[in-house]
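Section 3.1: Structural characterization of target chains.
Under the original work plan, the team committed to producing a structural model for every single-chain target entering the pipeline before any wet-lab resources were allocated. The record below documents one such target. The sequence was received from the expression subgroup and is listed exactly as submitted; it comprises 715 residues.
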Amino acid sequence: MTCAACSNRIEKTLNKIPGVTATVNLATETARASFTPGLATPDDLIAAVERSGYGAIEINDASLIEEKAKRAIAYKKELHIFLISAALTLPLMLHMVTIFAGVNTEFLPRWLQWLLATPVQFWIGKRFYISAWHALRGGGANMDVLVALGTSMAYFFSAVVTILSLDQHVYFESGAAIITLVLLGKLMEVRAKGKTSTAIEELIKLQPKTARMERDGEIIEVDANTLVVGDIFIVRPGESLPVDGIVIEGSSSVNEAMLTGESLPVTKQTGARIYAATMNQQGLLKCRATDVGSHTQLAAIINLVDQAQGSRAPIQRMADAISAVFVPVVMTISMLTLSLTWWFLGDFVTALINAVAVLVIACPCALGLATPTAIMVGTGRGAQAGLLVKNAAALENAEKIQVLIVDKTGTLTEGRPAVTDIILTGMVTEHDLMQVAASLEQGSEHPLAKAVLERAGGMNIRSQRITDFTAVTGSGITANIDGTKYFLGSPKFLRSHGAKIEDADIVTLQTEGKTIIAIAVVNNDIPQIMGYFAIADRLRNTSARAVKRLQSMGIEVIMLTGDNPTTAAAIALQTGISNYRAEVLPQDKATEVEKLRASGKFTGMVGDGINDAPALAAADVSFAIGAGSDIAIKAADITLMRNDLMSAADAISLSRATLSKIRQNLFFAFIYNILGIPLAAAGLLNPVIAGAAMAMSSVSVVSNSLLLKRWQPRS
């Protein structure tokens, strides 16, 4: 593909196939298509692309590596062709220099100029004619139509002058120089575009080729692709992990920077999850494979980055609409330039040269590359920093966020609450209170329940059998033990069932930011308080700095929590948040998000749990903490692999940097064409200079996008 007209035509061709929905990305030269089985197959899509005059292959890891090798060979071939073209064109350009110097005698005979220009025009330039023919046959027009038409006009005019020995200048050098400069521009563009797409290639390279397995008491080396779920493998210090798994023996520190962007190593002990491509640093680890091949975390990241880089940002629609009519409009302007200049000046040669300059300076490439190249670099850089963007629209929309809603547990805090205090009312012992609580909480995945169960485990307490279990989401639970009914939950929940709670027992703990769980036993149909647990979830050490940074970026931060107002106020004070909502039930989080959106605020939401999924889906832009639930991650637009709020600030910063580059690119592309075409029509630009400007315009857009690689996360 040479310009946006090419990608638009292929996209239309694919979408005409029954059951197919496709988008084509000019910068990556890829198409993403979904199709209905039975109505279309991948072979049908490839055949449709080939009928349009292009080639296509189905993408996988192997084909990406193979295609990269082919492109490297093709690049060298193109470089050789360019050098031949330059060698043939250089004498023609020296001839033009003598004319500019005022030497009337032609440096080269016309027949020799014709001889040098012909292979450039029809052998080296054959690609432009072929591409133009396919475009016109398909009912469209692309950049190659402009190049083929412009250079042909200069070439055939010069040929006629030479054959008839007319007293006119010949312009063989113009056509040859334009073709040579376009080739040079394409070589530079391909090299620059290659640098924009390195993120996926670097991720693929992280996958280890071999793994060590223990068989019959011996450690043997096998192909990593042969590992299956359940296999036991060994990882020595300094080696990368071949697949995702769980540590079953040993302890070590593992560098996960390649997945999360976090530079500090993570301690791994028995039971810890480990991920493919991360680096074991110290001890020997024996692990059991849990996810292999395309199901590993690394594979999911590669797929997400590929999906994001191939998606289309809303801001690109305007450029696409202009690109669709760009070439026909330029051809019309060129013909008008030829006609009007000839009419008013009476000089056909000047009119012809001006018309050629209009054709060759127009560049739909710059418009077509302005957005996707920046998206490619931005999403790739994000992946390297542990920011996984689902699509281009998410990256664009993050810039607009005015209000960021954060869930307290797991977002502002570490998500690992622990029991810090046990308060007894005199009815039972600490052991009995803990046994009741552990029995009621058994099997629960709630973070607060896990804190209670962990404390009970440390006291070697065994749970009792419960019956008639009932849970009220976000509030509490009831159940029977040996025929006696018990309540466990928030003070508000127990009060709603008639329990009498003395504020003096718990208010001091709440002002310290601790969450209170009350336990009651029903006597004579009235719940009697047996005791309380105070549970603290330590604030992440980056939370306060992250809130301050977000506020400095002009973003209001609002905290949602199920805690009572006293505890919520304490957490808000510690983090510098002035606006918060307390006692918000999980099912009400989405309602809070929708209220803010209804008030006209562009809203972001950061969460980590299953209960956050509806609120994440309701937000304009959603962020999921990477250590959170799979449901939350699937519902989110951006996944934060580093598990802290500072990453959300980084994601918004990356979005702003990317959109800034896109706007710069679009501004340059529009200004270039808005100024260049009239200057060419007015005869102020020589066709060769126009061709050089056209060749460099797309290179400059890609190079500007590459500057995004300098962006750095703050966390």
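The mean pLDDT is 84.
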